[in-house]
């Protein structure tokens, strides 16, 4: 199964491939410095859970680094913020460095 998620502006936010949500970001642009982590739109997150997602995988295009987090951990440790819509953020301390 492959499902593409888009932002309200129509840009690709990420893709659910089988049970892994893959998100490609620019560290310089998307890293939430106050949490040293990354966010996912609340509605996308809800849909990921409903569609059997088991892992979040974030790849930084500017560093080539990839980070993973089980969706259960993301859900338990998420920080909720409303920046033009509700988003869930995960602190970098809960992200596993894969590369």
Instruction: Report the sheet-strand fraction.
Output: 35-45%
What would the average pLDDT be, to the nearest integer?
A: 93
For the termini, the CA-CA separation is 25 Å
SS content category: alpha+beta
Give unreliable regions as ranges: none
In percent, how helical is the residue content?
A: 10-25%
Principal-axes shape call: globular
Strand order of the largest sheet: 1-2-3-5-6-9
Number of DSSP strands? 9
Q: What would your notes on this structure say?
A:
20% of the residues lie in helices and 43% in strands. With 99 residues, it is an alpha+beta fold. The longest helix is centred in the middle third of the chain and has 9 residues, at 42-50. The termini are far apart.
Provide a concise account of the structure shown.
The protein has helices at residues 27-30, 42-50, 71-77; strands at residues 2-6, 12-17, 20-25, 38-41, 55-60, 66-70, 79-82, 86-90, 96-97. By secondary structure, the chain is an alpha+beta fold.
Q: Secondary-structure blueprint of this entry?
A:
Layout: E1 2-6, E2 12-17, E3 20-25, H1 27-30, E4 38-41, H2 42-50, E5 55-60, E6 66-70, H3 71-77, E7 79-82, E8 86-90, E9 96-97
Parallel strand pairs: 3-5
Antiparallel strand pairs: 1-2, 2-3, 4-8, 5-6, 6-9, 7-8
What attributes characterize this protein structure?
99 residues, globular
């Amino acid at each position: 199964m492959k499902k593409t998620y888009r932002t309200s502006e129509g840009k690709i936010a990420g893709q659910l491939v089988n049970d892994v949500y893959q998100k490609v970001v620019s560290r310089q642009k998307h890293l939430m410095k106050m949490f040293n982590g990354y966010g996912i739109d609340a509605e996308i997150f809800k849909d990921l859970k409903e569609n059997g997602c088991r892992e979040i995988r974030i790849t930084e295009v500017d560093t080539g680094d990839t980070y993973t987090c089980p969706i259960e951990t993301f859900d338990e440790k998420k920080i909720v913020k409303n920046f033009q819509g509700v988003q869930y953020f995960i602190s970098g301390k809960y992200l596993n460095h894969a590369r």
